[in-house]
Amino acid sequence: MSIPSAATAMSRVRLTAGLCAIAVGFVTYGLSRVVDSGFVHGFFQGATLALMVAGAYLVGASMWHRRSRGQAGDDRHWLPSRDGADDGPAPKRGDPR
């Protein structure tokens, strides 16, 4: 059994934490439906929103790491300035009026 790298371990932690935050968000949503009004109802609604957003961020961050794994540092992001860089000068266009 190989020891996972620190980046792989962190990706797994982010995924687990994100899924747990989303699950707790569903629980707080259910609790907000039980409590009809007042501070506690608003607290559960706010907690639901915060946990769902944080969970989505963490899951997305872990998936982004998994998708970009194994690529060189310069090749990870596409840059429009490098698109067709070897094609030579752009063709001249007519009068823009």
What's the arrangement of secondary structure elements?
Elements: H1 6-34, H2 39-68
The overall strand count is 0
Which regions are unreliable across 5 or more consecutive residues at pLDDT < 50? Answer: none
Order of helices and strands: HH
Percent in strands: under 5%
Total of DSSP H or I helical runs spanning 4+ residues: 2
Shape: flat
Rg, nearest Å:
23 Å
Helix/strand/pairing class, anyone? Answer: mainly alpha
**Residue share in helices?**
55-70%
User: What is the average of the pLDDT values?
Assistant: 80
Q: Please give the alpha-carbon distance between the first and last residues.
A: 68 Å
**Sheet with most strands:** none
Write a brief caption for the model:
By secondary structure, this protein is an all-alpha fold. It has helices at residues 6-34, 39-68.
Describe it for me?
The chain crosses the membrane at residues 12-32, 38-59. Residues 72-97 have a biased composition (Basic and acidic residues). Residues 70-97 are annotated as: Disordered. The chain is an all-alpha fold and 97 residues long. It has a domain at 18-67. Helix content is 61%, strand content 0%. Helix 1 (6-34) packs antiparallel against helix 2. The longest helix is centred in the middle third of the chain and has 30 residues, at 39-68. The protein is flat, with a radius of gyration of 23 Å. The termini are far apart. The model has no long low-confidence stretch (mean pLDDT 80).
